[in-house]
C-alpha cells in the first residue's frame, strides 16, 4: 500500500472512530481532559504503527494503547505528572456533575474500584469478549470474570438503592 493510501486509511479510521475512542478513554480515566490526552497519545502511537496494523485490529490496538497510557500515567510519580499551566488562572470545573455524569448508572460506575470499572467498560459497555478484555488490561481471563461478577453485583445494589 502506498503512503497516500495508508494515510487516507488512517484519516478515515480516525474520522469514524474518534468519538467512540474518546468515550473509551473517558470510561477508563473518568476525566474529560485526561481522556483527550489519552486519545491524542493513542492516535500518535497508532499513526506510527499504522503501516503494521491491520485495519481490522486497529480499534483493539488503540484501546490497548489508551489503557496502557493511563496505567503509565498512574505509575508516574506524582511530582512528575503534568499539571495545568497557571494555578488560579484556569477556569474551575463547574460545581455539580457534568451532563454525562448525571445518570445513576454513571454514578454507580464511578463508585467501583478502578480495575472493576475498566472491566465493566471494556466488557459490557464496549462488548468485548473476556479474552479481549483480559488482553487489553493485561490480566487473566479468570480475573476478568471475577471483577465483572463483583462489579455487576455492586452496580445492581447501587442502582436498587438509588431507585433507578
From TrEMBL:
Gene3D superfamilies: 1.10.1740.10, Winged helix-like DNA-binding domain superfamily/Winged helix DNA-binding domain
Compositionally biased region (Basic and acidic residues): 83-100
Location of region: Disordered: 80-100
InterPro entries (alphabetical): RNA_pol_sigma-70-like (IPR039425), RNA_pol_sigma-70_dom (IPR014284), RNA_pol_sigma-E_actinobac (IPR014325), RNA_pol_sigma70_r2 (IPR007627), RNA_pol_sigma70_r4_t2 (IPR013249), RNA_pol_sigma_r2 (IPR013325), RNA_pol_sigma_r3/r4-like (IPR013324), WH-like_DNA-bd_sf (IPR036388)
Segments forming domain RNA polymerase sigma-70 region: 16-78
Domain named RNA polymerase sigma factor 70 region 4 type: residues: 104-155
Keyword vocabulary terms for this entry: DNA-binding, Sigma factor, Transcription, Transcription regulation
Family from the record: Belongs to the sigma-70 factor family. ECF subfamily.
Record's protein name: SigE family RNA polymerase sigma factor
Amino acid at each position: 500500500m502506498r503512503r497516500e493510501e495508508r494515510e487516507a486509511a488512517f484519516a478515515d479510521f480516525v474520522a469514524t472512530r474518534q468519538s467512540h475512542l474518546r468515550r473509551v478513554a473517558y470510561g477508563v480515566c473518568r476525566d474529560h481532559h485526561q481522556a483527550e490526552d489519552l486519545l491524542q497519545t493513542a492516535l500518535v502511537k497508532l499513526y506510527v504503527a499504522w503501516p503494521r496494523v491491520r485495519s481490522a485490529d486497529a480499534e483493539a490496538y488503540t484501546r490497548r494503547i489508551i489503557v496502557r497510557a493511563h496505567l503509565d500515567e498512574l505509575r508516574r510519580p506524582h511530582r512528575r505528572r503534568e499539571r495545568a499551566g497557571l494555578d488560579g488562572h484556569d477556569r474551575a470545573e463547574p460545581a455539580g456533575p457534568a451532563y454525562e455524569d448525571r445518570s445513576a448508572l454513571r454514578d454507580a460506575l464511578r463508585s467501583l474500584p478502578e480495575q472493576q470499572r475498566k472491566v465493566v467498560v471494556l466488557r459490557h459497555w464496549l462488548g468485548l469478549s473476556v479474552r479481549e478484555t483480559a488482553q487489553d488490561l493485561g490480566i487473566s481471563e479468570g480475573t476478568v470474570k471475577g471483577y465483572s461478577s463483583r462489579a455487576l453485583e455492586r452496580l445492581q445494589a447501587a442502582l436498587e438503592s438509588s431507585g433507578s
